[in-house]
Design brief:
By secondary structure, the chain is of the alpha/beta class. Helix 1 runs parallel beside helix 2 and helix 7 runs parallel beside helix 9. The protein has ten helices and six strands. The protein is 47% helix and 10% strand.
Length: 260
């Protein structure tokens, strides 16, 4: 039984932050709590590196040099098996999904982080993550605050989540969690399902994304493993073949969907 968070499998992902200084503060917060990977979604030349290093201080300046930059959020998240998104909307978002506290999030990561790459995703300072961006997430976290002032500085939010993870790393008890499907694997699966659902008239082809939201919500209730995704996509292939009047024998289908 694994009993601590694997911080080596954690990455902080900042989606289009506004301030170079805040990126530096985030790097310092991450290093304080033992997290040493930082992704930033935007063009690499969009920030003042010297300003980032100044706020990161000498202690975290090496992390600034190692930042990986991405033009698109989906590219930044593609490699991750589990994505934690932050939102200021407590309780239910427009996605009809519940949020958890940072402490509850950290407790869950004890088992999940053992064999899975985990992203901690934060939106820009002025608006946070949009509903479309939150759809990438497997878990939504809200930091409880006073009703008088709900907004929290980006680096403070990062520090609060990293602190709870640090505490969980040094004393929580977890359970086994298998390797989960990556964001890209799940995205490809949903594209495959949408294609089949349109072919069999299960969803309205005029607005398929609206109907796929409910499908994604259904799958979000469980942690999909890579093997689960392969099985679902194998079913999709068989449905497609059946619709074309073709069949595939059981042995070849079993081999196609077997683990590598």
């Amino acid at each position: 039984m694994h009993n601590k968070v694997e911080t080596g499998n954690l990455t902080i992902v900042l989606n289009r932050p506004k301030s170079s200084a805040n990126i530096g503060f985030v790097a310092r917060s991450a290093m304080n709590m033992g997290i040493k990977r930082l992704f930033v979604v935007t063009k690499a030349n969009g920030y003042d590196k010297e300003e980032m290093k100044r706020t990161a201080t000498h202690f975290a300046s090496a992390l600034i040099e190692e930042i990986r930059y991405f033009d698109q959020l989906n590219s930044a998240l593609a490699q991750f098996n589990y994505i934690v998104g932050t939102t200021a909307r407590w309780g239910n978002t427009n996605l009809k999904r519940s949020t958890v506290t940072p402490r509850n999030m950290a407790e869950q990561l004890v088992s999940i982080s053992y064999r899975n790459e985990v992203a901690l995703l934060f939106g820009p300072e002025d608006r946070g993550l949009t509903n479309n961006e939150l759809r990438y997430c497997d878990l939504l976290v809200t930091i409880p605050t006073s009703g008088e002032l709900r907004s929290i500085n980006l680096s403070h939010a990062v520090m609060l989540l990293c602190y709870e993870i640090f505490v969980a790393e040094n004393g929580a008890i977890g359970t086994f969690s298998p390797r989960l499907a990556t964001s890209k694997e799940k995205g490809d699966m949903f594209d495959h399902l949408k294609e089949i659902f349109i072919k069999i008239n299960f969803i309205n082809p005029e607005n398929p994304e609206y109907w796929m939201t409910s499908i994604k919500k259904f799958f979000s209730r469980t942690k999909l493993c890579s093997k689960d995704v392969k099985i679902i996509r194998g079913i999709c292939r068989q449905v497609d073949l059946y619709g074309k009047g073709k069949t595939r024998d059981y042995a070849s289908l079993h081999q196609k969907n077997a683990d590598p």
